[in-house]
Amino acid sequence: MKIALASAPAVTGEVEHNIVSILRFLEHCSGKADLVVFGESFLQGFECLTWDYEADRVMAVSKEGAEIRRIREAAAKNRIAVSFGYIEKAADSLYSSQIVIDASGEIIHNFQRVSAGWKEFWHTDGRYREGRKFETFAFDGKKFAIGLCGDLWAEGRPEEMKALNVDIVLWPVWCDYKAADWNEKIRYEYAGQAAKCGNIVLYVNPFCADPGVADAASGGAAYFQNGQIIKDMPAGERGILIVEI
């Protein structure tokens, strides 16, 4: 199985731009990978929320909505599976979620982040919610699970993930470390943390393309195995890391 970790450009609040970015990467990876994985909140950008519920519910999208339907159609057209993060609207609740769509365009998993670090909880109410637990899903004969960004650092959660005994953990994030700090030191800390969560952990960070923003997600992707960095793409770059499992 080949998995493309897409450190793709995303612009905060520009859903159309980010959909087009996903579609371009799907077309580019067609025939080269079985699954393309984008980072946390990629569809809208991690800083898209204002914590004014009436504004945020407009920014959020349903997994059955037109925005995701376009990506499902593109997955089917290019015969490639895709996973990406988005701010999900489910009834009256909002979540930071990661969806998985197979190569026929069907939704096979929708994970809702279990840790509260995606929101300014001192400003939000009970309509900004988290999921309860990690869950597994099957793809191409392997058992997967997803942890979003701070999920795999939250107390007790690495042990919970490890207990699932999956083949592959997907770790989409939105991290704003300076590229040099990530490349020189922090990636090794993440490799160590990944070892607490599973044998194979695939990390991917978007490349924030907001104009004039200095402290933003700087890209990068990594294939961690048993605490080691098997293969990676440095932060500070946009592009694709293809790993074979």
UniProtKB/TrEMBL annotation:
Signal peptide: none annotated. SUPFAM superfamilies: Carbon-nitrogen hydrolase. It comes from the Bacteria. Pfam families: CN_hydrolase (PF00795). Keywords: Hydrolase. CDD domains: nitrilase. Residues 1-245 form the CN hydrolase domain. GO terms for molecular function: hydrolase activity. This is Carbon-nitrogen hydrolase family protein. It comes from Sellimonas caecigallum. The lineage of its organism: Bacteria, Bacillati, Bacillota, Clostridia, Lachnospirales.
